[in-house]
Amino acid sequence: MLPRQLAASAINCAISVQKYSYATSIRSIPKSPQCPTCGAAFQTENSGAPGYLNEQKWRQMNQANVVKGLPEIEGTSESGSTEIPGLVNAKARKRSSNNANMLSDEEYKSIVSEIDDPELQAVFSGEKISGFVDPNDMQTGEPKVYSESEQGAKIDSFDTLLAARVRRRAEQGRDRVICQRCYSLKHYSRVDRPWKEDVVSDPRVLRFLQHKSNTMIVVVCDLFDIPGSLIPHLGDIIGARHPVVLVANKVDLLPKDYHEQRLLMWFKRFAKGLELNIQAIHLVSALKNLGVRELAADLTTRRRPGQNIYMVGRANVGKSELINALLRISIGGSAHKVLASHIPGTTMGLSGIPLRRFVKALVPSSGAQSHDRQSYLYDTPGVFSNKSIISYLTNEELKLAVCRKRIKPFSFILGLDQSLMLGGLGRIDLVEGPSRIFVTIYSNIRPHFTRIKRADDLVERMQAGEKTILQPPVGDAERLKWFPRQELALEHEFEGLHKQHATIDVVFAGIGWVAINGL
User: Fold this and answer.
1) What separation, in Å, do the N-terminal and C-terminal C-alpha atoms of the chain show?
2) Where would you tag: which of 5, 54, 298, 422 has the fewest CB atoms within 10 A of its CB?
3) What is the pTM of this model?
4) What is the pLDDT, as a whole number, of residue 101?
C-alpha cells in the first residue's frame, strides 16, 4: 500500500431534505398588457402577486395608450382623457406653488403705497400717465383676442405635440410602467412575499416550442452548477429539430486559474447526452460582458431571415442578464433592458423584445431588414429545479448562499472522524480510511470543520430553535425549527491515486461543490 494513497476511504454526505409544491404551468400569453421587465400580465387585484399596478399606475398606462392610439384597457376609471397623471400632478403642484408665492390685493396695495417716487407709484397702481406708453398698447392699443377656431388650432397642436412626445419616449424605452414586484426588485432587491410561490418547476411548460417553426433556441446553463442547471431530456420537450446554441454563463465566478480549453472540452462531452441539435457552445459572462460579442456574432451568422430566438433554461442561470448584455452592446438598446436579479423566478411570463432593438448586436447597424421587422427575441420563465438546495432558503438567506462574485477556493485537511459543514445546508463526514484527506471548497458559504459528534450536536441544537454557528439558515427560533432536518444523501467508497488532482467532486446543487484528493 502506498503511504500517501487514499485507499478505500468512505465519506458520508448529508443535505437538508423537504418537499415543496410548485407551479406546474406557465400562464398563457396574456391578452392584457404585460410588464415590460418581467413579462407578467398587469392586474389590480392581488397586491403581492406579479404584475400588480395600483390605480394611479393603471390609469397612467391606459391614458398613455390612448395618446399613442392603442386600444383602451378595460377597467380604467377615467377613459378618453389624453392627460398623463404624472404631468397633471406636476402642473397642479406648480400652480399651487405659484399661488402660495403670490401677494394678495391688500398686500400689493400696501407695498405700492410705500413707494416714494410718485410716478412709479402711479405706474404700479395702474394709473394713466401722460407721455408714458404701455408696451402692450404699442401695436393695437388692446390685447389680442383669439377666435374660437384659433384657440382650437392651438389645442390640437398641443395634443399633437404631446402624442409625439409620448411616442418618442416610448420608442426610447422611457416612461415604462412596471409592476410593483419589479419596482421592489429593481430598487430594493427584495420581494414582498416568498419567492417560491411564483416559480415554475415543470419543464413541460416549454412544449409549446415543439409547434414553433423558423425558431432558434439558446439554452443557457450555469457554469457554477452545470448538472443542476441543465434540464434533462430537453430535446424531447422542445423538439430535437430546432437549431440550438448552448451558452454556459457565469464564467466570471470561476477561479482565475481555470483552463478554458479543458473546460470547453469537458462541457462538449457532457452536452452530448442532452439530445439536442447543438450547433455551437459558448462560455460567457453576461454580467461582465465576457464573450457576449462573440456570441452575438455567432447568432447573427447562424440565424436565418425572419427567425425568432428563444432563451431557455433553469431559473437563475442568467437568461435575462444575457439579454441585457446583448442590449448593452446594441445601439440605444440599454433603455429596453429586462429585469434580472439573484432571486429565482424573476421572469414570470413570455416576454418578447423586437430584434430591431438589437442594432449592431443581432441586426446590421443600418437597421433591421424587412424580413426581420416582425422577429423577436423571447425571454422565457426559468424552470426551477426542486432538487436544488436553495429551494429551502428565504430571500435573506439567498444573499448568503448564492455566489455573485469570483469564487475563492478554500483548501483544508479533513481528518478521520471529522465533518466538513456548509452552514446548515450540508456536510461531508470522513468515517473510514486514512487519517486525513485534502479537500477544496468552492462555495460562497464559509465552511466549518469539527468532530462528527460535535456536528451532530450542532444540528440537533439548530433543529431545537437555538442559534448556532451554522448559517444559513438565519432567523428566529421558529425559522430554525421549520428548517428541514439533514438526512443521509450518499455513502460513497473510492480510491484516490493522485495527490494533486481531485479524485472526486461532491456537488451541493445550487451552492457549490467540494473537490477531494489524496494527501
Assistant:
1) 14
2) 54
3) 0.71
4) 61
